[in-house]
Amino acid sequence: MSQLANKPNLPRNSLILLMASVLAAMLPHSGHLPWLFAVFAAFVMSWRWLMFLGRFPYPGKWAKTVAVILTMTGIFLGFLGDFSVESATAFFVATCLLKMLEMKTRRDGYVVCFLAYFLSAAGFLFEQGLLWGLYGLLAYWLITTALVSIHLFDNRPVTRAEMSHLNKVAMGHGSILVLSALPMMLILYLVFPRFGPLWNVGLKSNQAQIGLSSQVTPGDIANLSSNNELVMRVTYKNPDGTQNDSQGPPASSHRYWRALVLDQYEDRTWKASGWSSDTRWFPQAYRPPAGAEGITRYEIIQESSGQKWLYTLRNGAPTQRGHGITETGVLVSRSPVFQRIRYEGVAFADYELFPGFIKAGGYPNLDEQSRRLYTRLDEQSNPQTRQWADSLSQEYEPVELVNYWLNHFRDQPYFYSLSPPQLGQNDIDEFLFQSRSGFCAHYAGALTFLARAAGIPARMVVGYQGGEWDEQEQYLTIRQYDAHGWVELWLDGRGWVRVDPTSAVSPERVDLGMDALLNAEDALANAPLLSERRIRQFQLLNSMMREFERLNYAWYRWVLSYDQASQRNLLTRWTAELSWRRIIIVGASILAGLVLLVAGWRLFNWYRHRPPKLERVWQQLRQRAELAGIHQTASDTPLGLLGSVLGLEPEDAGKIHWLRKDVERLLYMPEGDDKELLEKRVIKGIKRLIRRLPKSNSDAVSATSANS
Amino acid sequence: MTSQTIRNFKQRRKEYWSDWLERRFPGQSRVSLGYRSIFILPSATGFLFLLLIVVMLVTAINYKNSLIYASTFWLVSIGLVTMYFTFSNLHGLSLTTRRPSACFAGDVVEIPIRLIAPSHSVWGIRLAFQEQPMRQISVPRREEREFLFSYQTWTRGPLELERLKLESGFPLGLYRAWSWARLEIDGLVYPKPEFMPFVFEGGDLEGELEGATLDQLGNEDLRGIRDYQPGDSLRQIAWKQVAQGRGMKTKEFDSDKGISCWLSWDAASGDMESRLSILCGWVLTAHDEGWDYGLQLPGIRIKPDSTDTHRDACLRSLALYGLDAGSKGGVA
User: Fold this and answer.
1) Which residues of chain B have a CB within 8 Å of the CB of A198?
2) How does DSSP classify residue A62?
3) Which residue has the higher pLDDT, A224 or A290?
4) B73 contacts in chain A (CB < 8 Å)
5) Taking CB atoms and an 8 Å limit, are A154 and B124 in contact across chains?
6) Distance of CA B267 to CAs A651, B203, B261, Å?
7) How confident is the model at residue B217 (pLDDT cuts 50, 70, 90)?
8) Of A84-88, A250-254, A321-325, B214-218, which range is least confident?
């Protein structure tokens, strides 16, 4: 066997498609790769192109080695030896580019295409929106087309027309392949068993995680106020778990999504102190609805947060394996959330007491240890605030005291502002007595501090509040700018009570939501150009955007969050509804669909390859003439036929005469522009003649007898 | 001893295989590739593709990523439907051939093979006779294309083609569909000519060679040059004169017309094949010289003549001499 037969060369004419597919596969990664990669890609692509044109040499052994070493060092340094999903994909992108540079044989072409397939799929680790899904489809089509073209071209030089024809053929085959694979893909997608990770994925995305963090220094939450990234979407359900189709927007009390409880104050910062130490995991902690009174059920589709905490309403409980609830009522997951997840949520009534999770012997009386924890402050900061709280606590009962403070915030000139002045060492003193301007974290922090100073156990809760209610699709969208902080106070005999000091200062923040408030604020000016909020000011864009959001939501809900649970649901529903009638109906419709498909395909093929129009019209005329009694043999000429027709239709003699002249000219005319015009005229003439001809022999006889 | 056994075994296996193929897909003058004659197996690339799918599936499972699942299953389905498309690319393709130009044993002959595409186009198939480099070809739907394929001949006799190998990886190269087509062809392989000085002996015709001695044979026994007349043999045109721009001239040879001889089996020496080779060389030379020559083989006697048909008849009887003539190759 010759070397040539074993290693067929890569046809040079498929290079354009190959380059296009590599670019298409790289695009979803552009967001997280260092910008140097773009330069690298451009460099490799141009080199390859110059090689194609013959202006640049093929890289030699040394050049290749140097390129590989340089690139890999670059990746290592660029990611500082950090093994993450990003650096892994960067490695693959680089491999793909380098392979493309040196590809020579057809096998190299396969490797490049397969890498492109993989990269394209790996892009879904970062981008999963509806548009990216469609984009992935496009990329797959392109790569498949490139693969087809490898087999279509050989190394003969081709003309430009031939090349574009072959490219079209490749695209056609690419489309047929991708589309004909669709049904089986859908079936596999639905029935292939979904199970947990085979091993704990070591590679995590280190994409900057935007969102809440486990410590809050006033200012953090304000940073989120101009961030419109999606946090989660919530659908509320009926207490029995069925879909709730007609409900108004949830009450604002149903919009306090807890993420974290911050119970430790240190150096101007509120922190969470080991909240996961006492956690009850799912089957243990789940309390079946005994009374079924006041249960709120909902479903959350949460975006990747990179954190272990989940979102829940107050008094929530975990509903699935791997989720648990902490002593402080925070819903947590065993592993950080690195992709979009969906989970059911359940919350037990908005009682003031804490019935969902009763610590043995602990509640409703707070034990000493907890009491100490929740009233602890640092040693000496904010003396003024301490003194104020201390003196007030002598006068008032805890409940009165809290009301006093809320009234204080409301009546005194306190302002809600997203850009408050910088605060110094004794930040709460400065905030309460000087600046009097801040946002939720300031008020919540200050109130917690005051309560603790007055001996009332208190903790700060951060999460999200508000959100945007979609009336049509009945779901709540929560974005980063809905981040919020509030306070929970322990009142003896009543347990933990939620107090939101921000609502005292700026009720709009709580009632209307952050979005409405921000519209009034001049924060708009600071928001990035054409942010979502700004776009909303345009009516049409607004409604289009809303429609797209809905579609995207359906995409998230029905496609992306298809997991083990939804698969089990679907399959049980199918099997439960399985009956002979159904099987027959479904089978018959599938069969009918297939038959229609094949018939349609054949029809289409016939249509595509039918004879030209003139020929068809001529056939019609022949048939009609046959019916009218004019018998023809294979040797009859067209003009002869027209002559016979002339005998049948004497009064049209003039027209037929001209038609004959036209046909004659058409038959002997060279190709040209006039020919088309003439052909059209002839077709028209023949059609008119067909209409004139009698439909059957008897008609013809009667017509001729009438004439005579 | 063992190597002998192995060789025997290999030989037997090869024979078994070709017998099986012959039963399944017999040679014909027009071969059409159908279900029984196309074989398909995953290629090495196909296994690489499978590896890709496994890697993607593991990624999808570990990251619980629905879209990667979808991509993986898309590739799986593409891989499966490609099997059908790879097969149907070859399916329905027909091949025929024509008689190639004359050839002598040991020559590489160019066999014209006509590929007739069915109602679909046949893309990127590669084909060749064994031991020859593959050649990539596409035939648009309902069209015919003819290509010349080199074929190495070894022995004289009726031209029997080995199986032609066709293969195709189109559209994605994940599978290799192939077929071995045996085309029956109406052709002859003449004995390899050996050019030896003439020997005329034996029989009563000895010495009947007139007008020239042995030494002078075949060369410039030129009498002169005259103007070209329509009908003159192209071989006798004085091309040198034409090239010098002196118009068409015809060389006239001296007395060649008169020579008549018998080329005889007994005059050639050696075993059967070398005698046939020598006779073949003589026939060719005598024909080139424009003599009247006759051929005498044991049991065969062809009367002297100098036409092309005569030459072909002589060569044909040399090619088929001693073989089971007529069973293969047909009558010219």
Assistant:
1) 58, 61-62
2) H
3) A224
4) 184-185, 188-189, 192
5) yes
6) 89, 10, 12
7) very low
8) B214-218
Name the closest residue on chain A to residue B169, using Cα atoms.
A151
| pLDDT tens column, A440-492 | 888 888 889 889 988 888 888 888 888 888 777 788 888 887 888 888 888 77
Mean pLDDT along residues B1-13: 79
Query: How far from B233 is each of B237, B238, B246, B259, CA to CA, in Å?
Result: 7, 11, 18, 18
Element (H, E) at B89: helix B66-90
Select the residue of B52, B60, B78 nearest A144 (Cβ to Cβ): B78
pLDDT of residue A517: 54
List helix spans (H) across A478-612.
501-505, 507-511, 514-520, 523-526, 532-535, 539-554, 564-576, 580-608
- Alpha-carbon distance of A252 to A152, in angstroms, equals 63
Confidence band for B216, pLDDT divided at 50, 70 and 90: very low
C-alpha–C-alpha distance, residues B121 and B100, integer Å? 27
Name the B residues in 25-64 with CB < 8 Å from any A CB.
45, 48-49, 52, 55-56, 58-64
Rounded mean pLDDT of chain A?
A: 78
| Burial (0-12, 13-18, 19+ Cβ within 10 Å), A695 | exposed
- Kindly provide the ipTM of the predicted complex, given to two decimals: 0.76
Residue A374 in contact with residue A270, Cβ under 8 Å?
A: no
Contacts of B133 in chain A (CB under 8 A): 2, 4-5
* pLDDT surpassing 70 at residue A414: yes
Whole-angstrom distance, CA of residue A410 vs CA of residue A688: 90
- Name residues 265-284 of chain B within 8 A of A (Cβ): none
Under the banding of pLDDT at 50, 70 and 90, the label for residue A260 is confident
In A222-358, at which residue ranges do the beta strands (DSSP E only) sit? Answer: 230-237, 256-262, 264-266, 269-271, 279-281, 295-302, 316-317, 323-326, 331-333, 341-348
- Give residue A25's identity as a one-letter amino acid code: A
Residue count of chain A, please give it: 708
Residue A112 Cα, gap to closest chain B Cα (Å) = 12
DSSP A471-513: TTTTEEEEEGGGEEEEEEEEETTTEEEEE-HHHHH-HHHHHT-
Q: How far is CA A398 from CA A215, A387, A497, in A?
A: 27, 16, 12
Q: What is the pLDDT of residues A114-165, one digit of tens each?
A: 999 999 999 998 888 888 999 999 999 999 999 999 888 777 777 888 888 8
A338/B63 CB distance under 8 A = yes
- Indicate left, alpha or beta for B143 from its phi (over 0: left) and psi (-120 to 50: alpha): beta
CB contact under 8 A, B76 and A188: yes
Beta pairing class for B292-297 and B260-264 = parallel
Which neighbouring-strand residues pair with A157? none
- Of A287, A256, A266, A262, nearest to A274 by C-alpha is A262
Q: In this structure, what token pair is assigned to residue A206?
A: 């280190």
pLDDT at residue B261 greater than cutoff 60 = yes
Catalytic machinery residues of A: 440, 484, 500
Residue B68 to residue A125, Cβ atoms within 8 A:
yes
Q: Cβ separation of A124 and B67 shorter than 8 Å?
A: yes
**Band of residue B209 on the pLDDT scale cut at 50, 70, 90:** very low
Strand, helix or coil for residue A545 = helix
Q: Which residues of A637-658 are buried (b: 16+ CB within 10 A; e: fewer)?
A: ebeebbebbbebbeebeeebee
Confidence check: pLDDT of A112 > 80: yes
Q: How many residues does chain B have?
A: 332
Number of neighbours of residue A498 by Cβ within 10 angstroms: 15
Instruction: Report, in angstroms and rounded to the nearest whole number, the Rg of chain B calculated over CA atoms.
Output: 29
Alpha-carbon distance A608 to nearest alpha carbon in chain B (angstroms): 12
Instruction: Please list the alpha-helical segments (H only) found in A295-367.
Output: none
